[in-house]
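Predict the 3D structure for this chain.
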Amino acid sequence: MLTNVLLEEAQDLLINNLIALPGRFVDLETALGRVCRQDIHASHDLPPFWQAAMDGYALFISNDANRRQYLLRKSSRPGYDPGFSLQPGQAAGVATGGLVPPGAQAVIPQELTELKGEYVTCLSSVRPGDNLKEPGEDFHSGDIIAKQGAFLSPGLISALAAYGISRVEVFPRPKVAVLSLGKGIVPCYETPAPGQMRDSNGPLLAALAQLDGAQTLEPETAGGMEPAEIKHRLEQLLRQVDVVLTTGGAAFGACDQALDSIRQAGARPLFWGVKIKPGSHSGAAVLDTKLIIALSGNPAACAVGYHLLAGPVLRALQGRKLGPVRLEAVCKNSFPKKGGPRRFVRGHAFWGQDKWQVTCLPGQKSSMLRSLTNYNALIDLPAGCPPVEKGQEVSIILLPDCGAWCD
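Done. Predicted structure below.
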């Protein structure tokens, strides 16, 4: 087991010990937010035929560029084959998205025409190709509609539906259990006795994991359990889920039992301790194909540990390979602390005055919840960094699911 590792070392150890979950097919109606497990190709051109781009009249312009009047052959109904072809100087009424008759070279909007008797008069010039959608304009047969690893957005779901694809193979949502090991921690719905505290980290981790696409069990507390009971519960959870997140008990004090409990459950520790603040008391272990990620019991440290260690694991299990969004931002206030290990300050980032800006939030102690109520970014300060001054450029990691980016 490695101890007191660099953040990147810890992240590599976690990712290198992941085992891909088997794919599954889901109905398109429930595919939103999932990730494609294989490439999906277009089976035919889209659109498959020449279409009118708007309501109006399809025209056979022929060689007479100055022609303004066309003989109305008849109108075609939306959803039906017109059943006739246009000859030079003829027109046909068409609807948006409808099949245009063979011979049509352009469509003129209805509002730019006058209909008198059997003739359509154009009130504007028309060029070949105007207001026509050609076969394959969206996709050609064989094109990739969705690549492996593509996020199934509403627009992509729409494109798949246009091809009649009603089921799609996706990466499964990883199952996650959250277990609080802190002594004196009781479920949030209980009234704590003197010396006890309600569990806030369990709901925090479950909510963050859900935002990252995971399925979560109800958070549990083990503060009142004996070591043998904790070992047994960990073994049970590891049989039910893909990842177990523990919070609390990850330091080396007399009451800290996370590492011992994980070992007793048969898991092999990968690392313990990370050179960051907050979140230095974090670790991880593996049992067969299952991961245990142990996070600090202090709320802010727990959140930072999740974003830097657990979140990337859950996203990788779903085929999401994109790393964090890193940007340079102007700090709107100062942060007086200096030196020490690499530090992640909770901030609120927003776009304003044509640049990214970020505010260091109040409540930066590891034990405080205050900064977590409005954060959407982590300000990444390197080890030994001097105090941050107002107006200084800093490196930030955007956390898009944690809050708005608008000023």
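The chain has four domains: 2-22+174-317, 24-45+138-170, 51-133, 326-398.
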